[in-house]
Amino acid sequence: xxxxxxxxxxVHLEFFGSLAKIADAKAEIFSAWNRRRAVLxxxxxxxxxxxxxxxxxxxxxxxxxxxx
Length: 68
Fold this sequence. Notes:
alpha/beta; 3 helices; 3 strands
């Protein structure tokens, strides 16, 4: 099973208030990830945050696929 996060966009700002909070909400998918694969867009500003959250959720760095 994989999670794919393609972008963090201002479309949800009215609910979250900032792009960082939107990224945090999307990264919640990693809270019980347990060594599954993640596909992240390395071209977005929040890539490092998502990568850290994925690793903290149990996704090994080699299982985080960075797509442009």
